Amino acid sequence: MSGLSAAAYAAQAGNEVHVYEKHPQPGGRARQFTTENGYVFDMGPSWYWMPDIIDSFFLDFGHKASDFYHLVSLNPQFEMVFEDGLLTIPESYEDLKNLFEQLETGAGKKLDVFMSAAKYKYEVGMRDFVNKPCYSWLEFASPKIARSALKLDLLSNFRSYVSKYFSHPRLKTLMEFPVIFLGASPKNIPALYSLMNYGGYALGTWYPMGDFTSWYWG
Hints:
By secondary structure, the chain is of the alpha+beta class. Helices cover 41% and strands 11% of the residues. The chain contains nine helices and six strands. The chain has helices at 2-12, 51-59, 93-103, 107-129, 143-152, 158-163, 169-176, 195-202, 214-217; strands at 31-34, 40-43, 71-73, 78-82, 85-89, 206-208. A two-stranded antiparallel ribbon has the order 1-2. The longest helix has 23 residues, at 107-129. The relative contact order is 0.17. The mean pLDDT is 88.
């Protein structure tokens, strides 16, 4: 999907673009597998987070995501499987707070504090960090980022950051889960990336009806 997006922006800028794909259909890992008896499976991504970011891509080309596919909010969002049982993540944020409170007294209010900080990081990070080309560290040397450094928790690691809020092992696992998509251990990820928790648990988990190939087939 990122390769197709890059190709779209390159073509919009006036370049002649050729996209090469080793599979019979575009999308890289986001492809479809169909069995001989008609069952269809998504390959690669299995859910959809941060719908506002994807929608901003389509807006750059004069469209909305809804022009091409229909998103549904999943309830429950997903289940975490532990050795001694399941943890079901509800769609409603209030229900999520109640779940936290059931597992650890006071954790519901702590989730509010955590998510308030995560929302700030999401809004600053997705606007001021993610869209930079990353040619040099100097791109991040701005007065705004300097003023926000403490609130962005750039120097804390994510595992220690989560432990300041929650002590129940299941809650810690749940809160560390989103950053594994960044390809590293929570102990090696900056606490800035609590923005992932806001993008997932607060904004919800979604699915494009049909399958993920709807993203590029329309």
